[in-house]
Amino acid sequence: MGIQSLGVGSGLALDDLVTQLIDAERTPKQTRLDEQEETLDATISAIGSLKSKVEEFQDTAEELKNDFNLNAREPQIDHPNSDLEEDDTGPFSAEASTSALEGDYQIAVTQLATGTEFTTQDNVFSASSDVLTNTETTVNFGFVNSSDSFSVTVTSGMTLQEYVNAINSNSNNFQSDGTTPLVTATLLDTGTVGPKLILRSSITGTGDELQIDGGGNADLANVASTNLGVGSTTLTQENATNAIAYIDGIQVTSASNEFENIIPNVSFEAFELSETTTDTDLVAENGGFQYSKLTIGNDKTGLENKIRDFIDAYNTLTDEISTLTRYGLSDLEEDGALAGDFMVRGLQSGLANLISDQVSGNTLGSLAQIGVTFDDDGKLEITAVDEFGSGSGEDKLSDALDDYFDEVANLFTDSSEGIGLRVYDFLYEYTTFGGLLSEREDALDDEKDLLADEREAFELRMLNFEQIQRDKYIALDRTVSSLNQTGAALLASLPQF
Fold first, then answer.
1. Residue in 189, 195, 168, 194 with CA at minimum distance from that of residue 180
2. Do residues 16 and 88 both lie within one domain?
């Protein structure tokens, strides 16, 4: 039988020797591959982290590159009643577009827009179970002006309560928004004059009356308003009305409770009537309703918050870049995963140049004029201290928002040189699909695949190397074993003295 384990035949530690030879061959190459993989993993992770922070800053820049995000107007309303609850809007609320002019307006709501309301007369019905008709009829609900409509089938033997349910549950009984019923039916049990049916329309505006077509069935005179064959309706009708408001003493109307562009680029929605007073002048002017003051001004707080968000996002990106590109201060401190990386240096310097650049044609010219500057660490700040006698950053920003609101916004939104626009476009080259950061990630992934192939080839070489070494030392072991056996035989054949 041949030798199965190294050293068994010779008695030498050949297995340990082969193991040492394999380790000597493997260790330097294994270490190199491990170090390469560790470096690649760290770089891939660093690029991913950098890309995330760049995208966050790009999102912030996007908020600053459009006029409609920055030139917002902020309506402020002072109602006469100072005891309003926090969630109470008062008689009306208002919105203004970016093109609304600054100004103050006195507004009073004196009438709300209503829809048509029909009510059955006293003692027409004795119970909600009263049968309307024994003839099946299609009742159509429509309006004088609006095209909205729906139909209800009144079956033979249908009761008053069933009629109410059929109206309210009708799948077509909705305005175009899909949520507001066109007609709401309510049944009240008075306890004295029998149940009363109330039909309310949500279509408002003078002249746009609800019409309930009884299909020529005279039995429905108590619940329909037109086309009843013999006789006429017994329903009591309250007509639809417009909303009425007074703006600086001038009466304005709306078919709904929303008043749009009566004040250019301003809309307000009425919710309730303004409070009344006995003031003689107001009684003569608008019936005694008190005015609320609507002020259309610039949304300085909103713009300031966006500027501060821009600063915070830039500084967060700067901190991330500093961490990823740092050099260790000693041999014991590791360098950042992207230390000395040319692409990151280009990203950082490019952003700094864009942010500090001038915007030609703008009265302010640059962010420095609104108090936004770089500190010694390359981060943006708005200083709270006047260091050079020209005012603190906080003072400059406050003054600029007060005196040059549109120019502050234009620093970011200018169609050709706006900082928000240029920063967004610059970062887009890094973050877009196929952009610089994506290409860098793809290249690193390719390197990782090549490294995996190299490691696989290395393992095959090591298996071959190990087999060669074992074959060689098995032959040696056998030779030494054979020599030992020959020597033992010769010794055994010698005479013993």
1. 168
2. no
Number of C-beta neighbours around residue 497 at 10 A: 3
> What is the C-alpha separation between 62 and 70, in angstroms, rounded?
11
Residue 372 pLDDT = 94
CA–CA dist 214, 229 (Å, integer): 8
Six-digit token string for 165: 């349910």
The pLDDT of residue 85: 61
Q: How far apart are CA 31 and CA 29, in angstroms?
A: 5
Query: Which residues, given as ranges, of the chain have pLDDT below 70?
Result: 1-14, 68, 82-87, 330-332, 474, 477, 481, 484-485, 488, 496-497
In the three-class reduction of DSSP (H, G, I as helix; E, B as strand; rest coil), residue 430 is classed as: helix
Same domain, 89 and 145: no
Give me the pLDDT at residue 308, please: 94
Is the same domain home to 354 and 250? no
Same domain, 230 and 352: no
Residues 6 or more apart in contact with residue 289 via CB below 8 angstroms: 108, 109, 110, 246, 273, 274, 275, 276, 277, 282
Of 187, 210, 238, at which residue does a domain stop?
238
Statement to judge: residues 43 and 11 lie in one domain = yes
In a domain, 493, yes or no: no
State the residue range of the domain holding 311: 1-72+300-483
Q: What is the pLDDT of residues 258-282, one digit of tens each?
A: 999 999 999 999 999 999 999 998 8
Q: What crossing angle do the helices spanning 300-325 and 342-356 adopt, rounded to 10°?
A: 150
Give the 3-state secondary structure of 175-191: CCCCCCCCEEEEEEECC
pLDDT of residue 3: 42
Q: How many domains does the chain have?
A: 3
Tell me, yes or no, whether 192 and 333 share the same domain. Answer: no
